[in-house]
Design brief:
This protein has 302 residues and is α+β, with helices and mostly antiparallel strands. The protein contains 10 helices and 4 strands. The chain has helices spanning 3-19, 21-58, 71-83, 95-106, 137-145, 157-199, 201-209, 214-254, 258-262, 269-296, and strands at 61-65, 87-93, 126-131, 150-154. Strands 2-3-1-4 form a 4-stranded antiparallel beta sheet, with helices on both faces. The chain is elongated, with a radius of gyration of 31 Å. The chain starts with a helix and ends in a 6-residue tail after the last helix.
């Protein structure tokens, strides 16, 4: 296709958008509403997953050793932990370290535990392990429990189950909502452009009879759909990115207590905004293109 023809068809698509501005604005409103819902759900799902990962990183499998475990058994446990693919990192806490840690928790009253040093220390030595995949935490714990010298395994199994449930629910729920809203948006754009196609059906038939290709006829209507999708996408981006930015700023500067702790798990605005823009534009263009193609399919069969 020549550049002049392409330019003409793009301008024709813009003219179609202006001539049907009432329906076009209505379509933009519907697509905008759908994209906002998709965006809110997407941001919520991403941050829930980020929060779940944050909590998962805080979880530890603690391997408590027998007081009479030999050095050979301790080394065997350490070697197994080093070679285990699901253990990201670990720390060895000796009996003395465990006592010092408890004394630190007590603050000014820590000296009360001073008499438990040496042979009187009731606290066991342990390995604190951080796992990579929460889904495999139970099998990893079972393997550790079977090692010689291991007395007890402390595993946050219930919390892990909650985290996995949350992640799965947000993932599948987000996919379902996305599919429904994309379908609704495509139908709305298709109906809008179908009005233009119907009004110009005789012109399209004549163009077909004189040899115009389907691509030549279809391009202006695709441009119209892309314009609708682009305007809706950019407006959605401005609304949601602005809201997300100010929400993050508020939480980081004003929140206290557990909410301030949660802020560490939120995805920073400067990290997520390029992806937001790209995803919204991609959805807008996809919805506009597919909606246009669907609306014209019948009228191109001459």
């Amino acid at each position: 296709m020549k550049l002049s023809n392409f330019t003409y068809l793009v301008k024709q698509g813009g003219s179609n958008f202006k001539e049907n501005r009432v329906m076009s604005i209505a379509s933009i409103g519907v697509v905008l509403s759908c994209l906002i819902i998709v965006g809110v759900c997407g941001l919520l799902a991403l941050n829930i997953n980020s929060f779940a990962k944050f909590l998962g990183d805080q979880n530890e499998v603690v391997v408590f050793l027998y007081d009479d475990a030999s050095q050979e058994q301790v080394d065997g446990v350490a070697n197994f932990i080093k070679s285990n693919n699901n253990i990201a990192s670990y720390d060895y806490i000796s009996k003395e370290d465990a006592l010092n840690e408890q004394m630190g928790y007590l603050g000014e009253y820590g000296d009360l535990l001073e008499s438990y040093r040496g042979e009187n220390n009731p606290l066991p030595a342990s390995f604190r392990c951080k796992v990579k995949d929460l889904n495999l935490i139970q099998s990893t714990s079972d393997q550790l429990a079977a090692l010689e010298g291991v007395e007890l395994i402390s595993t946050p199994t219930e919390l892990v189950g909650v985290l996995i449930t949350i992640k799965n629910a947000t993932y599948y729920g987000g996919i379902s909502i996305l599919a429904i809203l994309v379908f609704v948006s495509i139908v709305v754009i298709a109906n809008t452009i179908r009005l233009t196609v119907f009004a110009r059906r005789k012109e399209i038939n004549i163009m077909k009879f004189v040899g115009a290709t389907n691509g030549f006829i279809r391009l202006p209507f695709i441009v119209e759909g892309v314009i609708i999708g682009t305007i809706a996408a950019l407006t959605t981006f401005l609304i949601l990115s602005g809201g997300y930015y100010y929400l993050i700023q508020y939480i980081e500067t004003s929140a206290t207590g557990w909410i301030a702790t949660v802020s560490d798990a939120l995805i920073p605005y400067q990290v997520i905004w390029p992806y937001m823009l790209a995803v919204f534009l991609g959805f807008g263009w996809f919805i506009g293109t597919v909606g246009s193609a669907i609306s014209m399919r019948r009228h191109l069969k001459v």
